[in-house]
Write a structure and sequence with these properties.
alpha/beta, six-stranded parallel sheet, five-stranded mixed sheet, 14 strands, elongated, disordered C terminus
Amino acid sequence: MASKPGILTDWPWKPLGSFKYVILAPWVAHSIYSFMVKEGKDRDLSNLLIFPFLLWRMLHNQIWITLSRYQTAKGSNRIVDKGIEFDQVDRECNWDDQILFNGTLFYLGNLTLASGSHMPFWRTDGVVLTVLLHVGPVEFLYYWFHRALHHHYLYSRYHSHHHSSVVTQPITSVIHPFAEHIAYFILFAIPLLTVTLTGTGSIASLAGYVTYIDFMNNMGHCNFELIPKSLFSIFPPLKYLMFHSLHHTQFRTNYSLFMPVYDYIYGTTDKSSDNLYETSLTRSEELAEVVHLTHLTTPESIYHLPLGFASVASQPLTSKWYFWMMLPVTFWSMMLTLIYDRTFLIERNTFKGLNLHIRSIPRFNIHYHLKWKREAINSLIEGAILDADSKGVKVLSLGLLNQGEELNRNGELYIQRNPQLKMRVVDGSSLAVAIVLNSIPKQTTQVLLRGSLSKVAFAIAHALCQRGIKIVTLYEEEYQTLAKRLMTESGNNLVVSRSYVQKVWLVGDGMVEEEQLNAPKGTLFIPFSQIPPKNIRKDCIYLSTPAMATPAALKNIHSCENWLPRRVMSAWRVAGIVHALEGWDVHECGNSMFNVEKVWKASLHHGFSPLNQPTTKTLE
């Protein structure tokens, strides 16, 4: 929001929240009904196409968002070399408000203007007139209007909201207070109203002009250069028709819309624009020192990728009511994963001089539980490891199910197959153990251990037995497995019981709902697995899967890691970063386990902090 918000700052439908789209419902219903009941020349195709055109605008913008996010992750051709944070994502989440606003005015114009309905698809004279009006009065008036917005009175009340985003994204172009959008619509309506009132309007001229505005706005704010230098060499005047400026960092220069000719005429061109353009084109993709290898979880998790819906990715992963409307997209995305056989980059962060990448295996949770898919998944993971090693990556951490015992023996399979690896592969088990141990309240004397007995579970049980804390299991089979692994360390601290009196449960994969229902009121559930259990008890406390809060120095974090809160990283991801920072020249895979206390202290030393610190009051 602007530093001193003026009148008409908020959109009229802001109180509606996610239900704001209902404002178009009457118009859309009337449009469809009119087209169906009328016949022949009485049907108004231009009216019917308004709603599909609005959908096209949303899709067009989303394509630019995805492209920009991908380029931001790669780091190549960047203009402003800074990161995006959550506050910018929140500020720009209402980018579609201007589409709703324009759509409402399009319907009103179609209804009230005599020549605003029953438009032909194409009229050459109208297209030419639209171009001339934009090149002439629109660009000229925009220059002076934009320059006026930088006067301290208007800037503090309105335009500063737009300039809060120093690192621009395509949708930054339309993030303005409501009052500004009214002014912009009046300005851009000059060609639209002129061709409409003169009877030269057409569907192509109106839709084409608005699409052109969207295209240029998106390209001008995407924070990377698309136009190759050779194009300016072939046609030098193009330089005075389109360019990306430094306007969001140099506020007193580069006021033009898409044609900087007026900046050259009035002396407001930033002198560093040409150098910035040259630098951006030569900026190569940044190579990573640390890679975290994850995968998709549920079919709906594709919408949670940073490359997808920014506002969805900025919140913990949950199912949304409107995802059911996107079932066709979800289905074809799942089909695509069956044929796509390479990992893809989804996010880039920086911390203490390290470039951190997150790459994803194009497979879902369900694939990891199918035996006949294991070989193919292992090939994908091994390919990603070899590719990272060839690019000089120092550490690769295995996230989620990429380190399964049955899949690859906690990553040991890849080390055995590729003993020549210079890079270190980390499964993060020791840090996961440390986080779980430090999440158990200090006064605890006994815990219930339930779930698949993984490498992490055995290490937790071993540490608890050494502390003299009693470990209770529900099943004889689990007891025997633990007793065999722990041997003399367990002593009398390992028992089988179905009393369900324990108020601290350490849980992993395999816990069923019936067992949760038997837990006493106020039970503290502490997961040790990568996937969280389903929370079915409102009278109990559920901690997150092992994770830590990130330090403020970790930059370019603008999405949540799966179901974790903002600026929180899983133990397995943090472990890879700490491994690289400490320069530990060993793998942590298979049965190998670091000193838990050493890893915990190293994580705290580098600024990561505990996420959950229960006290005695937690269990009351």
